[in-house]
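**User:** Here is a favour to ask of a fellow structure person. Please take any protein you like and set down a full record of it. No explanation is needed for now; the record alone will do.

**Assistant:**
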Amino acid sequence: MRRQDFYFDLPEELIAQQPTEERTQSRLLVMEADGGVSDQHFPDLLSYLNENDCLIFNDTKVIPARLFGQKSTGGQVELLIERVLDNERVLSHVRSSRAPKAGAVLHIADAFEAEVLGREGALFELKLSQKESDLSALELIEAHGHMPLPPYIEREDELEDKERYQTVYSAKPGAVAAPTAGLHFDEALLERIRAKGVSTGFVTLHVGAGTFKPVQVDDIAEHVMHSEVIEVLPETVALIEETKRKGGRVIAVGTTSVRCLESAARFSGDGPLQPYQGETDIFITPGYEFQVVDVLLTNFHLPESTLIMLVSALAGYKRTMQAYAHAVAQGYRFFSYGDAMLVHPAQKTAAKAE
C-alpha cells in the first residue's frame, strides 16, 4: 500500500490543545463488531466489556524529557531525552544552531552539566552530572525537565500537564510520550471495570520520540520502523492464557500495548505466548494476522502515520478511513488530549476483501 492511502484532511481546530476537565469526559467512537460506527462517551466503554475479558495497559511513565540550557559559547540548546541508558548516560536529541561535538559541555537549566560523549545517528550520547551531587541522570531530569508535549500541541507545557499527560497507573519511568489511550481512565472507572469481572494486566513500552516520525517513503513496505524497549512479564502471559481459556477477549489499551503483545508473540515463534524483554521494531500494517489482540482501544492518529496503519490492520482499511471521516464530520477531538475509539476487528472474510 502507499503512504498516501492513509491521508485524511484534518481541520486544525480538531487537534486538542488541552485535556478535558475530567479524564473520562472524552467521547468514544465505537467501530462496532457488525461493521457500523456509533457515537458514545468514554464511560460507555463499560457496556462493551464482558466478564472474563481482560484489558492490557502500558504502565510506562512519562519523564519530563525536555530540557533547556546553553552551550559553553552561550548559544541556546534544547534537549529531548530519548532514552536513559544508566545512572549517568542518556541518548538525546539536541537542538541548537550547530551540533555539539564530542567533549563539549552543555549547561542545563542552570543546574547541571551534560557532556557530549558521542553521536549515534540523530541521537547524542550525553553524560549528566551535577557538581557536589550524586543524583542520577533520571533524578536530574525529573528535577529540572519539562513534560515533552507532542509537536502538534502548540503551547508550552503547564503544571497541569505533569498530571494529565500521564496515566493514573503509570509506574515505570522511561517514556518521552504518553500512551495516550490510557489517559481517559481514572481510578473510579478502573474499579467499575474490575467489579464487572474484567481483568487488568500490564505491559511496558517506553514510548520514544520516534512515535511522531512521519512515514517518508511512498511504499509503506519500505518504511524502517523505530525501535523501542518493551517488557511482557510472565504474569501478563498467564493472564492472557487464562482469558483465552475462559473465552474472553484480550483488549489492548493503546497501540503500544498492541506492539508489546504482538512482538512477544512474534518472538515466541510457533509455540505458546512467552514473556519477552528487549527491543521491538514491529510494524503492523494491513494484511497482518493478529496473534494475541482481539480488540483495540486507541486515540485518533496522525494522517499517514504508522499508527493509523496499525488500526487499519485490525479494523480493515476501508472501515478505518470511513470511521476517521465520520470522526472529522462529527467534530471529535484528535491526538494525545483528544477523544478515543474502540476498534472491533473486521470480520476476517471482509478484512481480506478490503
About this structure: Residues 349-354 have pLDDT under 50 and may be disordered. DSSP finds eight helices and 17 strands in the chain. The CA atoms of residues 250 and 294 lie 5 Å apart.
